[in-house]
Amino acid sequence: MTSVIDAGLVADQNARLDAQLQADYEGLGGMLARRGLDIDQLTALAQTFAVAVPSWGAGTGGTRFARFPGRGEPRNVFEKLEDCAVIHQLTRATPSVSPHFPWDKPTDASELRETAKALGLSFDAVNSNTFQDQQGQEQSYKFGSLTSTSAAVRAQAVAHNIECIEIGRAIGSQALTVWVGDGANFPGQHNLRGALERYLDSMREIYAALPGDWNVFIEHKLFEPAFYATTIADWGTSFACATELGPKAKCLVDLGHHAPNTNIEMIVARLAQFGKLGGFHFNDSKYGDDDLDSGSINPFQLFLVFNELADAARREGEAFKPAYMLDQSHNVTDPIESLMSSAGEVQRAFVQSALVDRAALAGLQERNDVLEAAQTLKRAFRTDVSPILAMARVRSGGAADPLACYRASGYRDRVAALRPVRAGASSSGIV
Ligand SMILES: [Mn+2]
């Protein structure tokens, strides 16, 4: 595997932190042992954690007002992969990349797959894009794509999704994520039921093109760009469509795609209960689909989501494997720094959820000991598992402190010199 960051630098940085990490690890280990937990087991568990990085997240995002490009942004999918390789090399938690087509459409799919492999990466779910018009495209998605009243527009959108599956097969992916911005901006603009019927008809064609070992993830989103009625606006609609389509169709939960104050962990529990939890787009939000860094606003919510995932894993066993992906827009930070930090925050919630004594919690719930049950979750959430995360990274060959190591490497300066800014060069989006 090619190391993008000099392996010697990583080793030096780790050596500098070694004594401090050992001391912190032993201290935490003692505390956890008194709670009946083995720190080495938890570290081994942390080492199994993986979350996919979105290819579009490697570039600077933007809002509908402006986009302020960053230095050394990747200009094509190969440069995006190189940045993703840095993230995985230092965190050891992001072995796969979720590409977006046509933004990342390769001229040679096998070359793309081999390049990823050489960088120690593979491909996770592929994402289709029928929420914007592409150059040279015959039909416009201005009034919808999979739900369009025009059969020609629907056919073009279906064909694009099937092409995404074909490229996905060639690069080793096993899932297609479909998000459409389709909907209405005015009451009366379209027939609410008719739009969903057309969506299902289109999705049936896409579903029929799925290889046997593939899944299609339906991503819902409350609003934007349709500000009155989004066709796939909520988990109920997503669940109904996934059920209608068949066993390969599952629901994808993007943490930012809900009304404020929605109990997302309960949605997770419901979808897991009925076998329809396909995966996640992790990010954080304060007001809407803010696409802020995971765990930056409401880390307790992230923990509660993982608490439900731990419960589901215990009930369902090995078969329970939702896909984890980050989906963030980085407007004011270095995307590599944000993605490394976010992968760590999701991994933190995963490890914290493993601290919960589920048998004891079940007993407290049985006896209606409300306060102690709540404290059981809080105790896990309050535990700073940073030494476990750092040790997991070191034991997996990563960096004890990815951010410090990345900054010491000078990677951004190096690629800034190699990748001069070109207007509109980076295909970054907010999905
Ligand atoms: Mn998303």
The gist of it:
Helix content is 48%, strand content 9%. The chain has 431 residues and is of the alpha/beta class. The protein has a domain at 50-342: Divalent-metal-dependent TIM barrel enzymes (TIM Barrel, Alpha-Beta Barrel).
Notes on the protein architecture:
With 431 residues, the protein is an alpha/beta fold. It has a domain at 50-342: Divalent-metal-dependent TIM barrel enzymes (TIM Barrel). 48% of the residues lie in helices and 9% in strands. The chain has helices at residues 7-34, 39-47, 77-91, 109-118, 151-171, 192-208, 235-245, 264-273, 299-316, 335-354, 358-366, 370-382, 386-395, 402-409, 411-418, and strands spanning 53-54, 96-98, 122-123, 126-127, 175-178, 183-184, 215-219, 229-230, 249-254, 277-282, 323-326. Helix 3 (77-91) crosses helix 10, helix 9 (299-316) crosses helix 10 (335-354) and helix 11 (358-366) runs antiparallel to helix 12. It is globular, with a radius of gyration of 22 Å. The chain binds manganese (II) ion. The site of manganese (II) ion has 5 residues, from loops. Manganese (II) ion binds at residues 219, 254, 281, 327, 431. It comes from Massilia oculi. This is L-rhamnose catabolism isomerase. Pfam families: AP_endonuc_2. Residues 101-291 form the Xylose isomerase-like TIM barrel domain.
